[in-house]
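Give me C-alpha cells for this 231-residue protein.
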Amino acid sequence: MKQMPSRRRRWFAAPCHLCNQDTLESTGLCPAFGDEWQALLGWSRCSGCATARAGLDGDERCGQCAVRPRPFDRARAAVDLDSSVRHLLRRLKYHQDFSALPLLVATLLAGVQAEASPDALVPMPLHPSRRRQRGFNQAVLLAQGVARPLGLPVRGRDVRRVRDTGSVTDLPAASRRRALKGAFVVDKALPAHVAIVDDVMTTGSSAESLTRVLKAAGVERVDVWTLARAP
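Here you go.
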C-alpha cells in the first residue's frame, strides 16, 4: 500500500481535522481517522481515467478507456472523493481553511510518487472572476506543494481560463464539450511532458479540454494528477 511521507510528531496537541479530538500526529488526524485515511490510498486504478478498478495494476486500463481513450496520456488520482475528502476540500475552497492543506498535499504526493516525472506541472486554471471570489486557486496550492519535494517547476501563469464555464458536471457529454470549447489559452511555450494538477476529477471533461489545448500548443505528453476521483 502507498504510504504518505512520514513526518515527526507535533510538539503540541491540536484538534483532528475530522473529529476535533486532540492529536499529536503530524497529519492532523487522530489515529482512528489516520488509519481510515491511509486505507484510501490502497485502491488500484485505471491509468486512463483514474477510477478505482479492482484487479488493475500499473498501466492497465478499464474496458471503457480501452475502447475510448482519453486525450490525455495517463491519469492518476490519490483517493476517491469520499465524505472525509469532500469535507476537507470544502473547508479549503469555500471557508479558506488551510489547516488541512499539508495533509492534502501529502496525500496527492503519495498518489503520484510512482508516476513518471513530468517536466512541469500545470495547475487547472480558474477563471479570474472565480479566483477573485475565492481568493486563490486550490489547484495552484496543490501543485506548489507537490512540486517542492519533486523538484518540478509550476507553470501556472502560462495557461489561462478565459471563459467562465461554471460547473459542467451535470451536462450531457456533447454539451460539456461545447461549454468548454475555447475555455483555455496557452500563452507561452511549455515543455514536452506536463502534468495537469487539480483537486477533483469528476467527468474529466475539463482535463480533456485543457489537454487538447496543450497538445495543440506543442506539448507531446499530458498526464493528469488529481487529489480525488469522483466514483
